[in-house]
Amino acid sequence: MTGVEPPTGLWSLPRPAIAYILLFELLTAAALVAALLADRSAAAADWRRFGALVLAGAAHLWLSRRTEEARRDNRGGPHVDTSVVWILPAAVLLPAWMAVLSMLLLRLQLYPVARRPLHRFTFGSAGTLLPALAALSVVRVSGLDVLHRFSPGGFLVLLTAAAVYFALNAAAIAGVIALSTPHPTRARVTGTRRDNAMAALAVNLGVLVALAVAHAWVAPLLVVPLLCALDWGALQLENLRGDSRTDDKTDLLNSRGWHEQVDRELVRARRRGTPVAVAVLDLDHFKQVNDTWGHPAGDAVLRAVGAVLHETTRQGDVVGRFGGEEFVLLLPDTDAAQAVHVAERVRRGVAAMHVPAKDKRGNPVTITARTTSIGVAAAPAPTATLEALLRQADAAVYEAKSTGRNQIRVAP
């Protein structure tokens, strides 16, 4: 008998989150239609600014696409994009219908880079467009010429419009996270200090671009290199942070990085009601490698095991090294039988290793016949805590070692 497939995509979220997303998108669609039906008049200067903003935005998105993809991969969670640098100036500079058209063009160009499910990209776009339309309304309601004639009042209106955009965008994201996460924390809902600082910086740059475009329509083209450099700098900072999460000998996650990523995976598993498994690997007689050939040879074996784990685990598995000769895997959407299958691939891969190294005297050697004992613990649904799964898998490793090594044991 075939079981019913669990819902995926938007419909896999809790009902309050679905209602929130659909209502938010409906409000955004209504606001977009209202703006498109507004006065269609446009001066020649508006067309020049429209073309400059769309062209500069497209150039920025194209030139920084690899950097943005790398940043998105590094994060693995909510990601701050910098398209607001072009969207906010369009909102406060252009006629309403032209502003909407430029926003839609910019968001559509972002879709191939975003690499997100359609429902998430659609909501992300709504979370950008509705705040931008609110910023547009602030400027229109004020009745002040905030860009062409500098005045304290006009500048205050422009800053207010930027603050409204920032607040509504943050609230949109916080709302969906709070409603779709089983146990939302304040830090998860409001975002990290770094995320908020990055978002605020992008909004401030949008204000500066708006002021520049008001006086020289070609100004956006001069901003593109600056933004690409900003994106690259943000990637380097994230890479530095990633270095603190990565084991330098194996290029796997270290304990800190593994726990951070596992926490995110467990949240997804609880939301979807899917099983998870943990496998703990302990290399057999690893001390003999160090004693016989020296610690550099031991490091070579660890690197080889890391390569085996990269090759034999699946996309989506979270693999880390806890220190010494102990490695750990989180296997999402995996029951006990599937986890044993993955563990067996790893066990065979380790047993087949031929590791070139040097002995204590610097002579070349090839280290073979290495084995590993593996303990597996699984939960049919993600009801067990990570601590419990690790404890059970550790006990299974001890059983594997005490009954002969080079084998897999599954926790009861």
From TrEMBL:
One of its GO terms (molecular function) is diguanylate cyclase activity. The chain crosses the membrane at residues 17-38, 47-63, 83-106, 118-143, 155-179, 199-218. This is Diguanylate cyclase/phosphodiesterase domain 1 (GGDEF). The keyword Manganese does not apply. It comes from the Bacteria. InterPro entries: Diguanylate_Cyclase, GGDEF_dom, Nucleotide_cyclase, Rev_trsase/Diguanyl_cyclase. GO terms for biological process: cell adhesion involved in single-species biofilm formation; negative regulation of bacterial-type flagellum-dependent cell motility. NCBIfam families: GGDEF. Residues 274-412 form the GGDEF domain. Keywords: Membrane, Transmembrane, Transmembrane helix. SMART domains: GGDEF (SM00267). GO terms for cellular component: plasma membrane. It comes from Actinokineospora spheciospongiae. PANTHER family: DIGUANYLATE CYCLASE DGCM-RELATED (PTHR45138:SF9), REGULATORY COMPONENTS OF SENSORY TRANSDUCTION SYSTEM (PTHR45138).
